[in-house]
Amino acid sequence: MTWEIWMSFAWVSAANIVTPGPANMNTLRRAVQFGGWQVIPTIMGNTLGLAIGGFITAYGVAALVLSSPPLWALLNYTGVAYLVWLGLKLLYAPRDADLREDNVSAQMPRKLFIEGLLLALTNPKALLFYVALFPQVMQPISPVGPQAALLVSTYCGLSIMSLSLYATFANSLRAFFATPTHYRRFRQGSGAILITFALNLVSGA
User: Most buried one in 25, 92, 163, 201, CB count within 10 A?
Assistant: First the structure.
């Protein structure tokens, strides 16, 4: 793989990653709720999900899923259902979450990691991005493993940088959202946005 091809892949990936989506929205929300440093498990969970999807695509499993309408529909609507579930939880939460970092439970990092992982694994748009780009940049005469490792690590590294910037930005807004009224509105707005993402997936299915 030439330097020019890799750079092209990196630029296109960066443009796709920074575009607002479920992972960005979830990281933003959790950083406002708990603080910037507390969302590291969210970012790492998302990164693992992207890595799994990337290697699955590189080794051809994703092509099998995309060629089977029932499997593709199952993946697509699983992602829709998960986003709707998260959105409804935010819209109809019985009470406002505490915004203080010192009240984060010992179980929260695991919960945030799984949440980020599931968002990445159930997002069919990420899989479509891999399927669209990998054949354009991977060399068929070269071993798959090293190429996949380079492309996936590039994409995941850019994702970590993007989500970290989202978390830093959200952390700077915590003072504004510290009041119950402001945070309630932010939480409900986040829920509405996640449900909108889900509806967009349905319309594109």
Answer: 163
Name the residue with tokens 């607002």. 20
Q: State the helix-helix crossing angle for 22-34 and 69-91, rounded to 10 degrees.
A: 30
Contact indicator for 198, 83 with CB cutoff of 8 Å: yes
Q: Which residue has the higher pLDDT, 175 or 154?
A: 154
User: Could you say which DSSP state residue 95 is in?
Assistant: S
User: How many CB atoms are closer than 10 A to CB 5?
Assistant: 13
Query: In this predicted model, what pLDDT tens digit does every residue of 117-160 receive, in sequence order?
Result: 998 988 777 778 888 788 788 887 788 888 889 999 999 999 99
3-class DSSP state for residue 16?
Answer: helix
∠ Cα 49 51 56 (to 5°): 100
Q: Is 35 helix (H, G, I), strand (E, B) or coil?
A: coil
Say which residue, 182 or 58, is predicted with more confidence: 58
Tell me the whole-structure pTM to 2 decimals.
0.79
Q: Token match 């952390």: residue?
A: 171
8 Å CB contact between 58 and 142: no
Residues 6+ apart with CB under 8 A from 126: 50, 53, 120
